[in-house]
Amino acid sequence: MPTISRRILLLSSAALAGAAFLSPALAEDLKITIGYQTVVEPSKVPQADGAYEKATKASIDWRKFDSGADVIAAVASGSVDIGYVGSSPLAAAASRELPIQTIFVVGLIGQSEALVARNGAGIEKVADLAGKKVAVPFVSTTHYSLLAALKHENVDPKSVQILNLRPPEIAAAFARGDIDAAYVWDPALGQIKTSGKVVLDSSQVAAWGAPTFDAWIVRTDFAEKNPEAVRDFVKVTGTAYADYLAKPDAWSVSSSQAVAIAKLTGAKLEEVPELLKGYVFPTLEEQASGKFLGGGTVSAIAAASAFLKEQGKVDAVLPDYSKYVTSKYVTEALASN
User: Fold this and answer.
1) Mean pLDDT per 10-residue segment, the chain (337 residues)
2) Which of 30, 49, 37 is CA-nearest to residue 236?
3) pTM of the predicted model, to two decimals?
4) H helix runs in the chain, sequence order
5) Do 65 and 74 form a contact (C-beta atoms < 8 A)?
6) Cβ–Cβ contacts within 10 Å for residue 28, how many?
7) Which CA distances in Å does 194 have to 106, 124, 171, 198?
8) Is-contact 240 52, C-beta < 8 A?
9) For 129, which DSSP code?
């Protein structure tokens, strides 16, 4: 199986030297490049209506990425300031000492990521994956979950032909019958469900002791030079989650929120309300608690890094991951309310 270096940019001195470090700027001159993914979650609404630009008083370049590994590579090169990643690529990046900080835990992943077997592939359970072609974006949360599931069910990963494909490639390969199963997220997940069945989702893998989550990260140098912008980004994100958690049923198929999310992610409009339920979203108040940025996230990154090391995806783990997580901006966002 290809190693992590195939998808994650190795943090060589050359890569770091080429990073574009932003100079201090007046608020009205600030430009922020944000890497997002097509995950169905509440912050897509303020992204769609310009709330981030209004709060930060900045010009924002929103760039869509197919995987967290690609976001990490862009952050490492200096072309992205704030990015959306899963816990697995986050752990890999921290283990390679990329200068980043986790500033917001998006949510604990449940049914929103799943292993789907193609109809007729003869796969009913994880053990049936032996000898089959299974696609997954390497070094993603679904890759981590797949390997964790194989380990739990005592299936040798070498007995499975695990293919490294991005979500759009997975949907196309699944439709052609080139692969037997895939572990992925929406909108590709919704597409392959039409000709397949869910074998397992990440809520079950979490119950087996391998939880995954998504998070927003920031380049450390950008945050140090623009702390108020990072605080305001976090505040807008937290507000979106609070709005959803206060009245989740209001985000129905006919709501403007669902329409905005479907447009930005490519997910089917009728599936958006149910997909939102596939996550456990922490409130802004919970973000700074010991369960998340106040300690739990550090432990989760360390555990994910240890697993990746065991699987040969990273060369070494660090003795302490606390420098890659901060509750500073959620605390300041709360104080500014």
Assistant:
1) 37 39 53 95 97 97 94 96 95 96 93 95 97 94 94 96 96 97 93 96 91 95 98 97 96 97 93 88 92 93 90 91 97 91
2) 49
3) 0.80
4) 13-17, 44-49, 51-56, 68-77, 87-95, 141-152, 167-176, 188-193, 202-207, 220-225, 227-246, 256-265, 272-276, 284-287, 296-310, 328-335
5) yes
6) 8
7) 27, 16, 11, 10
8) no
9) G
